[in-house]
Amino acid sequence: MPSIKEQIVNDIKAHIQSNGGEYNNWHVGVCSNIHYQTLVEAKARHQFIARQAYSAYVAAEVQDYFVTTIGTDGGTCAEGTNADIIYAYKKSADISERNFRSKDTSSENVK
Q1: CB 34, CB 110: distance < 8 Å
Q2: Mean pLDDT of all residues in 22-41
Q3: Which helix (DSSP H) or strand (DSSP E) does residue 67 occupy?
Q4: Mean pLDDT of the residues in the chain
Q5: What's the Rg (C-alpha) of the chain?
Q6: Exposed/middle/buried for residue 36 (C-beta within 10 Å: 0-12, 13-18, 19+)
């Protein structure tokens, strides 16, 4: 049985593979919360996936794996010690990383 970290990696890999494109066409990031409306819009238009890790440390490890080993886009987390949500989306011309950031504490629909 995979650990939570392994399950998150497997979920995101499967999502990327089923939605197409090379890994470098995807952005993997971590945050402390996701505004519900932004999440819904992203899911509808940009093959979005999000998972909640047990800790910010685990989320950062998963992001690091995707960025350094797999070759996705991603950046450093500036959200501090509460950034336990890891997300991925297929990059496109009409979306930017800041669209997924919010001060709202809602994290509905995040598994």
Answers
A1: yes
A2: 75
A3: none
A4: 77
A5: 13
A6: middle
Instruction: Give me the residue label for tokens 């994290």.
Output: 107
Q: How are beta strands 49-52 and 85-90 bridged, if at all?
A: antiparallel
Q: Tell me the per-residue pLDDT of 90-101, one tens digit each, with 9 for 90 and over.
A: 887 555 555 544
Question: CA 53, 54, 58: angle at the middle one, nearest 5?
Answer: 65
- 3-state class (DSSP) for residue 85: strand
Quote the DSSP letter at residue 54.
Answer: S
The label of the residue with tokens 């979306």 reads 95
- Residue ranges of alpha helices (H) inside the chain are 4-19, 36-46, 56-64
Q: What is the pTM of this model?
A: 0.75
